[in-house]
Each structure stands twice: as C-alpha cells, then as structure tokens.
Amino acid sequence: MDIMAPIFGALNAIFNPILAMDPNPANPALTVLIIAFIVSLITTIANKYLVDQDELNAQQAKMKEVNQRMRDAQKRGDGKELAKIQAEQADLMKDQTAMMTNQFKPMLVTFVPIILIFFWMRSSAINNLVIILPQTVYWVTLTPLWHFLGGFMYGGKATIPYGIGWLLWYMICTFGMSQILRKYLGFKEGF
Q1: Could you report the per-residue pLDDT of 79-124, keeping only the tens digit for each?
Q2: What are the CA-CA distances from residue 21 to residues 7, 15, 34, 139 (Å)?
Q3: CA distance 54 to 60
Q4: 3-state secondary structure of 55
Q5: 28, 42, 117, 173: most buried by Cβ count inside 10 Å?
Q6: Cα separation, 115 vs 61, whole angstroms
Q7: Are residues 46 and 109 in contact, defined by beta-carbon separation less than 8 angstroms?
C-alpha cells in the first residue's frame, strides 16, 4: 500500500476544488497564488505564535547597539572599552543562540505540511504551469539565472521566452504574500 495515497487524497480534496475554479485550469496560475497565500498564512501565523517577537526585536536592537558601540570604540582606539564590549558580546551571543533555536520552532511545525503540498503540486496539473512574465519582472527576478542553474542541474533549457514554471511563480507569490501578511499581523521587522 502506498503511504502517500491517503495524503494525496486529502490534498486532492482540499486543492482540486480550487484548481477547478481557476479560470484557466490548464495553466493554473491563480491556484498557485492561492496555495502560496495559504502556505504563507500558515507559516506567518506559526511565526507569530511560536516565536516571541518582542524578545527577538529586543535582542536585535541590543546587538545593533553593542555593534555601534564597538565601532565607536575602535574609531577612538579605546582598548579597555573594546575588551568590555567584547565580553558583553560573548554574553549576547549565548542569548542569540537561544533565540535562533526558538526561531526554528515554526519550521518544525510547518516543514512537513509544506513539503507534502510541494509534492502534491509537482504531481498535479500545476506541474505544467508556465507563466509569461513582463520583461522587467523577468530580469528583476533573475529568471535567466534560475533557468541557467536549472538547465545545468537538470538538463534541458527554457524554451518559452520570459516564461517561468510553477516553482518560481510560487516563490514570487509566497514572498509577496509573506510580506503582506507579516505587515498585517503586526511584525515589526521584515522577512
């Protein structure tokens, strides 16, 4: 028995209705946008509730302040102050290590569902998606570089001018959606 069959069945039940509502089911760009929104929402909410944002921002501000003091002490050539700041930095590094560990909590929660959604997208009609980008967007997103790397790693080459596949389209959508959701949910810092 294929262990993935029930999982893909559940994902089909969730995403096939969205795919069916897409104005162009043969090239489901809107469906990928909706899936990117769903995934971004899940990851942003996980970050919001599993990471202490106030503590994280306080740590970042403190580190920025200590780094500024260190640069000032270096400019003045104050060795005594420099040694004091370096000792302070060592303590801050311990706190930052704990905060970085705390930041991995959302990834632990969201990793498996996201991977399963990726596998579903790759095995569905979404796998054949091609988006034709405006020339400016094509160059700003470094699409030629991604095409080169994809051709180098997997063989073949991009055959549609200014075209991208579902994965790059998903990444563009996710980045935009994540920024909007982070702003809406009150994150003080960016990505």
Answers
A1: 888 788 888 887 788 877 877 887 888 888 899 999 999 888 888 8
A2: 22, 10, 11, 31
A3: 10
A4: helix
A5: 28
A6: 34
A7: yes
